[in-house]
């Protein structure tokens, strides 16, 4: 690690000394200061206001001293920006007015222009200035996860319509996912050009697929997102839930760091992914409500298992639940910082 490189970026590049920590969905719903500034303002409206985006992104950095900030936005923001009629319903998730199911529907998916999201460049520029040494992670949704919302019309348990379209109309599926890959790549490009120092591609729901279907119908599109960003020297994190059978493919798609949920221990995950990748994760978010001594031991176990990987960024296995006690997250950050270097070294 060079003296100017943050512990987070050093871990992404597999040359850390300590253990960096941040939390997926650290900004937002679990923080009282978030509810205060968001009062009376819609989710998507808040994403288009650089002053609010900056404040909300900084809140968990101030409160916890995490090693990275994640840009406050949503995977649906670029779709909204090209004119897709959608809402984010609190407690439910994204809801699409007219789902996309036919070739004619694809006409509504035009390319994203940087000017459509000028507020993103503005917010990222301001944030990077205020964050100082703390890196900012930019993010976007991967084609499969975005497609699942567009095709289902909202959240789904089984992704039945999405999978049916994927296997029965492969040509339509490929056009749809190519457009979504280009949309996400442009959204990430805007964030990187404004100063984001790492990116995370969220394919939250890809774990619902078999490895064969993932490799055939999804991986090429996620790889297209990363390929389009090849000119940038920023670490790429690739995350999904329930991806135990897909971990190697998640690395191969073009990531530097593979996000792992709580179902596979990090040492085993790293063995599946291979030695050229760092891992990120993977405390079970449900355990945040366990008594502190029990939870603390689970935090230590995650670090110890992660020490088998050539790089490890501590995180939860999925997002911070809305009911999480911020004080508990603060204690985890302190514990990872205090004990991480020694636990990783043993
Ligand atoms: O710190 C952060 O990570 C905040 C930035 C962030 C949000 N969404 C803000 C948000 C990030 C990284 C996301 C990503 C996102 N959005 C994903 C991938 C991550 C994951 O959890 O797997 C997905 C699948 C979405 C789509 C989405 N948006 C869902 C499923 C929800 C939850 C609905 C709910 O209320 O339970 C949202 C809404 C959302 N995105 C909120 C926030 C702060 C809450 C809505 C609100 O505050 O009104």
TrEMBL record:
Organism domain of life: Bacteria
Protein's GO biological process: protoporphyrinogen IX biosynthetic process
EC number in record: 4.1.1.37
Domain Uroporphyrinogen decarboxylase (URO-D), residue spans: 20-29, 137-153
PROSITE patterns registered for this protein in UniProt: UROD_1, UROD_2
Keywords assigned by UniProt, alphabetized: Cytoplasm, Decarboxylase, Lyase, Porphyrin biosynthesis
Gene3D superfamilies with a match to the protein in the record: 3.20.20.210
GO terms, molecular function: uroporphyrinogen decarboxylase activity
Pathway: Porphyrin-containing compound metabolism; protoporphyrin-IX biosynthesis; coproporphyrinogen-III from 5-aminolevulinate: step 4/4
SUBUNIT field: Homodimer.
UniProt family annotation: Belongs to the uroporphyrinogen decarboxylase family.
Protein name: Uroporphyrinogen decarboxylase
Taxonomic source organism: Microlunatus parietis
Name of the coding gene: hemE
């Amino acid at each position: 690690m060079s003296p100017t490189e943050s512990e987070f970026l050093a871990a992404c590049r597999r040359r850390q000394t300590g253990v960096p920590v941040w939390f997926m969905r650290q900004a937002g719903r679990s923080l009282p200061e978030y509810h205060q500034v968001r009062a009376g303002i819609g989710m998507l409206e808040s994403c288009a206001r650089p002053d609010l985006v900056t404040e909300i992104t900084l809140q968990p950095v101030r409160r916890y001293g995490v090693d990275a900030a994640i840009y406050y936005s949503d995977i649906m923001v670029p779709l909204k920006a090209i004119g897709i009629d959608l809402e984010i319903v609190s407690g439910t998730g994204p809801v699409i007015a007219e789902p996309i199911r036919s070739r004619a529907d694809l006409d509504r998916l035009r390319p994203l222009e940087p000017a459509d999201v000028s507020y993103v460049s503005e917010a990222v520029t301001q944030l990077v200035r205020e964050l100082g040494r703390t890196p900012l992670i930019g993010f976007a949704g991967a084609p499969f996860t975005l497609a699942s919302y567009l095709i289902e019309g909202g959240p789904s348990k089984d992704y039945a319509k999405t999978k049916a379209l994927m296997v029965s109309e492969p040509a339509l599926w490929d056009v749809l996912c190519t457009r979504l890959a280009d949309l996400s790549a442009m959204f990430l490009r805007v964030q990187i050009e404004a100063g984001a120092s790492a990116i995370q591609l969220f394919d939250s729901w890809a774990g619902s697929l078999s490895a064969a279907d993932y490799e055939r119908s999804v991986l090429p599109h996620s790889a297209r997102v990363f390929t389009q960003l090849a000119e940038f020297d920023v670490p790429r994190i690739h995350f999904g839930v329930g991806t135990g059978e897909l971990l190697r493919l998640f690395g191969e798609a073009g990531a530097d760091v593979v996000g792992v949920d709580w179902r596979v221990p990090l040492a085993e995950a790293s063995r599946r992914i291979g030695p050229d990748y760092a891992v990120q994760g993977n405390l079970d978010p449900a355990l945040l409500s366990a008594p502190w001594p029990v939870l603390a031991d689970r935090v230590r176990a995650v670090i110890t298992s992660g020490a088998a990987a050539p790089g490890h960024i501590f995180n939860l296995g999925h997002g911070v639940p809305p009911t999480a006690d911020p004080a508990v997250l603060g204690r985890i950050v302190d514990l990872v910082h205090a004990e991480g270097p020694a636990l990783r070294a043993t």
